[in-house]
TrEMBL record:
<dbReference type="InterPro" id="IPR008979">
    <property type="entry name" value="Galactose-bd-like_sf"/>
</dbReference>
<dbReference type="Pfam" id="PF00754">
    <property type="entry name" value="F5_F8_type_C"/>
</dbReference>
<dbReference type="Pfam" id="PF08522">
    <property type="entry name" value="BT_3987-like_N"/>
</dbReference>
<feature type="domain" description="F5/8 type C">
    <location>
        <begin position="282"/>
        <end position="429"/>
    </location>
</feature>
<protein>
    <recommendedName>
        <fullName>F5/8 type C domain-containing protein</fullName>
    </recommendedName>
</protein>
<dbReference type="InterPro" id="IPR000421">
    <property type="entry name" value="FA58C"/>
</dbReference>
<dbReference type="InterPro" id="IPR013728">
    <property type="entry name" value="BT_3987-like_N"/>
</dbReference>
Amino acid sequence: MNACQKDDRMNNMVDDTIYFRDFKENKITVFDWGKFDYNVTVVKAGIGQQEAKVNFKIDEAYLAAYNAQEGTNYKLLPADCYKIDNTALEFSKKDYLHDIAIVFDSERIKALQGKYKELYVLPCRIEAEKGGLHALKPEMATTLLIPNVKDPFLEFTSPGLQLDQIKLSPTGAEQVIGEATLVTNYPNQWNLDYEIDVDPMILDDYNGTVSDDKKFKLLPKAAFQLLPAPYKIAEKENKASFSYTILKKGLIDGATNLFGEYVLPLRIKSVSKNGINPVASTILVPVSFQPPDIPRSGWKVIAASSEWIGGGEKENILDGNPDTFWHNIWMGGEPPLPHYVIIDFGKEYNVMMIELTRRLWNNDLKVVEFSASNDNKTYVPLGKIDFGTNSPKSTLAVNVPTTKARYLKCTVTASNRPPSSAIAEVYVKGL
């Protein structure tokens, strides 16, 4: 049996053509390290597999026509800003790609156009000798090279305050390893050495831009560890990881946990070649060290030196509403300082931190001293909170030596309007 079948394997194939792989506008990042190498790729394709000689040239007429058509105002890049050694390409039958090597002089271009401004261009055209090959479309035989000078930088991939907070707790891990990523914004061809430094000024600058409740404390030196410098990025690598270790022991002073919100401020100090991005050279690593809240269910205020019945009852310091408060008697003879209240937790806890909110929109309360007891008879001092004279803060906290206690005594020893004082809420943290 004989059968005939149409051969459609050559459908949609084209005659031999030449064209720029990247035609029309072609924006180029020229890194500012003097001589910068760039390749323009010319493609030969089609079914004929012809040999060809192709010439590459700078075409001012094409630039003028492009500006007129597109409404642009590009200028011809001067000849001293680049160098092209070979403008003639020879394609064998099987060749399909060739590069034109251009060396841009970044310093001259930068001086000419200023940093990051794309004004000067190279209008390029290719033509095959004897007219043997043409582009599929006329515009594919032209390209406009637009060099944009850019500084070669090492930088953090995510500069500024880091979103991932390192959290420590009294019962958690003794250390936590964190990591930051650095990159070059250029194709790296060198073995780079770099240094990372701790710079408290980064934190000072940050704290100067935020409200008091969002400020951080500097992480103590004993609470972190960096590996010895220098750190390295290998040749042909564009990325590196920098690790640091946060140490909980550095936030413990004897029996007192130094609870708080901290930051480890890191800066890229140096790099062995090229530069450091000034706007991406720093990170702030947030470290939170906090104890858990002791639940207030079952707590009672069992005593007060005095209380104002009619809006200043002692129970108000545990009602969860900062708009209510305990106040010493102020009508019918105000007693002198000190004033106090005693809280019964209902059972023993390891007290580690005390947080107190004073009467809102009122700065009478100045100093409160705290003491603890297991029997409501013998009290040991824990620490104090001092709001000062003109502080706008309503809430302050104090770290105290870890103390096993059932009772907490809050004693007002100083007032900005003696002998008046008021406490809105008392919270205790620990285990």
